[in-house]
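#onboarding

Welcome to the new folks! Below is a worked example of what a typical request in this channel looks like: someone posts a single protein sequence, and someone else replies with the predicted structure as tokens. Don't worry about understanding the tokens yet, we'll cover that in week two.

Example request:
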Amino acid sequence: MSVPTNEKGHPGGFVSAYQPMSGRTTHTVTSSYDLAEDLQFPRSLITYDKMRADPQIAGVLEALAQPILNAQWDLIAEGVPENVTEFVRTELGLYGPENPLAQFSHQGVSILDHIAEMTQTLMWAGFSVAEQTYTVAPPTPEQAALGLPEEVRHLRKLAPRPPRTIEKIEVDKDGGLKGIVQTPLNPLDGDITIPVKQLVFYSHNKIGGAWEGQSVLRPTYRPWAMKDMYLRLDLKAVDQHSTGFWRGKTSDAKRRDALYESLANLRSGQETVIVTDAQDEVNLLAVNGQLVDVVARLNYLDREISRSALAQFLDLGHDNGARALGETHLKVFITKCSAIANYIARTVTQHIIRDLVRLNFPEGTPYPVLTPGDLRAQQGASAETLKQLMDAGAITYDRTLENFTRERAGYPVLDEDAGPRPAEIEAQNAEAARNAPPPVQVGPGLATVTELPTAVTASEQTAYERATSLYQQLQARVGAR
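Example response:
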């Protein structure tokens, strides 16, 4: 049975153009499926760049970025040779929590700085690009003990290429990324073409060959546009309604145009004046009826902006929801942030770490994987949730749990040389009571031997055993009689 080996269709998201000079056909990304002209690539970048200046949108973008930037980025090196893992760490400046000070003295690429810049661009633009370059040089002093050859291909730079400078995103017919075309600094120079082998390309929610991705601001475009319109109307209404409406009368026909022009130019202010003649009559009419509540509409649109990014917790307050509702919203939001962080980790692993290992080690050498950790676990549990778990017996109170809770809350951890805490003493006494031998029943009319004290010495233990033996002998005699 034959199997298909060639593609007949295409993934969409790009257009084809024939170039007579070169005689070849190029395929470039386009957003022709988006009905809003302002959101079609590359024009969309201008719109999104303008939108992110809005205070509500800026807060949403910052809320999305912070969990990712503060994640516990590290390498998973299971099954990877130790020298390969350490080489990747030294190249990326990612030394892990056991050696946090090393990254501050690291020279070269810092993968954490790269992630920070790419993440924030990815959020508002929908994609972010970096050009990676290498240099051939001997191993660094910190790589001396890793058994590397005399010359190593070091990762020299991960240089960002801002989205606003990218004119085209070129793809192959099957939708695979081919490269980007960047605007030159000097207009007299030709366009700069960077092939895919030199790129690290991040695309948020990419569909088919649409490598421009989807900005997190795309769903907020409509409420943002309405909010911008309402703000302009509100400014105009404040200017008009703060002084009311002027009405003028004059018996001189020649004065009519001059009086109209004077009244039309009146604006609110401390020095608002008008000069009239004796035959002119001017008075101020107050606004009748109820004005449109623009503030309520603006608040509604702000909530819509937050909801589009699953950041509803930003709008919660004393009138807008309980704490439990905020925690529910936060869990959904962190899940979204975790998905974005995992995508960034996969891209770094496939296009940076894998290339580093392939360029410096034999073919087939396994390579470590970048991970942001569990963002949901890094948020910790609330005090109310922690108490509920402890009351239910799902977790127990000990020094490890207390140190973890203190560290998450920003308090100093317990000193290892400190004595036992009251809760620890109580737990030790309870454990000793559970492990104590049962009482010995010696017969009718005789007392029952009580349990051992919770804390006993060696001599007290010996005396207890001797007394127990005597009671057992006495019990045997009573039974015989």
